Amino acid sequence: MLGLDPDPARLWAEAASRAGGNGPAEQAASAVAAHCCDLIDAAGPACVAVKPQLACFERLGAPGRIALGAVVAHAKTAGLLVLADGKRGDIDVSAAAYCQSLVGTTATPFGDVGGLGADAFTANPYMGADTLGVLIEGAREAAAGVFVLVRTSNPGAADFEDLELAAGGTLWERVAESVDALGAAGELSDVGAVVGATAPQHVARMRELMPRTIFLLPGIGAQGGRVEDLAPAFAPGRAGGLVSASRSIVFASEERGGSAAEAAREQAEELRAAAWALG
Amino acid sequence: MLGLDPDPARLWAEAASRAGGNGPAEQAASAVAAHCCDLIDAAGPACVAVKPQLACFERLGAPGRIALGAVVAHAKTAGLLVLADGKRGDIDVSAAAYCQSLVGTTATPFGDVGGLGADAFTANPYMGADTLGVLIEGAREAAAGVFVLVRTSNPGAADFEDLELAAGGTLWERVAESVDALGAAGELSDVGAVVGATAPQHVARMRELMPRTIFLLPGIGAQGGRVEDLAPAFAPGRAGGLVSASRSIVFASEERGGSAAEAAREQAEELRAAAWALG
Predict the structure, then answer these.
(1) Which residues form the Orotidine 5'-phosphate decarboxylase domain (chains A, B) (predicted)?
(2) ipTM of this complex
(3) Region of residue A106 (left: phi > 0; alpha: psi -120 to 50; beta: else)
(4) Nearest CA distance, B30 vs chain A (angstrom)
(5) pTM value?
(6) What is the nearest CA distance from B37 to chain A, expressed in angstroms?
(7) Which of B35, B74, B87, B207 is flagged as catalytic?
(8) Which residues of B touch A94 (CB under 8 A)?
(9) Which of A19, A55, A58 has the CB atom closest to B110's CB atom?
(10) B56 with A94: Cβ contact below 8 A
């Protein structure tokens, strides 16, 4: 999975030169869109999905939202799934509004307003199973999926996620049980889990608690995770694990040399080969 | 604090009639902006801040972001603080991007792009203190504040937030200790806590764990919380608690009769009087 976390100050030069529009926000947003589309063209053939990080677009205001829509459309045309990475979570009516925004539509007196049209989105479990339930229900209505944070890839995951519970096990294990229970019956569940690739010692236990769950595995590359350590994620087959990389692909030419696009393509192909060797 | 959770299907009629623009998204967004501005004019004088729920605007796409900007500007002109309610949380670079989006600016080769210009925003602690630290640092640079979810107002708060830890206490108590530790020195901390008004039995304990923290207290009115039960929140003075209400104000005329604006103003004034009687 190709992470799209565009930093307007570090875009591919050729894409940045195609910026249009009036004023910094429109110019930066059009450059960001061009950069992401070029990246999709280069690395997309080695991927099944793109994962735009929503804040990177939101910080450019309304033009950023237009750029995000253009990137989503480009990814879909390229045959890729789109996972909107915003880690949302909120009470009932607000959770439903996030579903409308990301995967659904909004009824208004002026006609229906389409959302982003993502195929899935990430969600934060802190507020409880009722908040996840609303997100999952809204996603199902749109034939979309949800990936719930279980054990993340950052060092601070130890602060709360790893806490030992009085009843036994850790918080993330309790969340994993909830993710397993919330998923629909079937060979693979429709509720996925975000499982940091930087703590591979936990992946086998996660697979035990969530046997039918698709794992989204961020943290490969720039964050230090290694795909070779993730074999248990692929126990249910190749579709059981989605390895996500972002900075290691977009800036691959800094290590590999060559053009940014060529290096990104090679890096993504290598990552695919490494992941599929496990599945 | 006035919650702004506009549902395009339930806007004040007079505001909806002022909709402009082309197509459903622009028309709905302009109607939402008119509605929120009317609500601010009616109930704002009884409030210190507005709390726009971001998903309600995001679901209208780029026009929704323009509407949100207009509402923020209107609230500031009315002398109100703006708390962007998105419950964000993510790893380092992504957390920094949320700060740029909500309270900061983004450097681009085309010039700086301003963010929403909020005075504070809500954050989700699940991923750990390092993710909160980045959000708090970004907020400080913008002279803004952060309110961290501690114990929320929904029934599912019992699922994870209330879990008993092996080391003693609950998860939310551990988060509360972290919120207290992350705040800057001073009479009142610059890191606030979201503390559901629907579980008043916990408020005294929260005040014990977070003596200098400003409590944002949602859940009054439509969610069943009563302001009279929240006295410990105001122990450090009136500024120690921010009581938030949304649906009970915007739809006050359904119970009170009269015009929507008049009923909203009366309802907000009563809530202020009840809260200040405690402070």
Answers:
(1) 1-264
(2) 0.97
(3) beta
(4) 11
(5) 0.97
(6) 19
(7) B87
(8) 5, 53, 55-56, 85
(9) A19
(10) yes
| Minimum distance, in Å, between the CA of residue B6 and any CA atom of chain A | 10
DSSP H helices, chain A, are 13-16, 23-43, 54-58, 61-77, 92-102, 129-141, 171-182, 203-209, 247-250, 253-256, 260-276
Amino acid letter for position B212? R
Chain A segment 10-49 residues within 8 A of B by beta carbon are 11, 16, 19, 23-25, 27-28, 31
Residue identified by tokens 């309610």 is B85
Q: What is the pLDDT along chain B (279 residues), one digit of tens a residue?
A: 999 999 999 999 999 999 999 999 999 999 999 999 999 999 999 999 999 999 999 999 999 999 999 999 999 999 999 999 999 999 999 999 999 999 999 999 999 999 999 999 999 999 999 999 999 999 999 999 999 999 998 999 999 999 999 999 999 999 999 999 999 888 889 999 999 888 888 999 999 999 999 999 988 877 778 888 888 899 888 889 999 999 999 999 999 999 999 999 999 999 999 988 886
Residue B96 in tokens:
């920094």
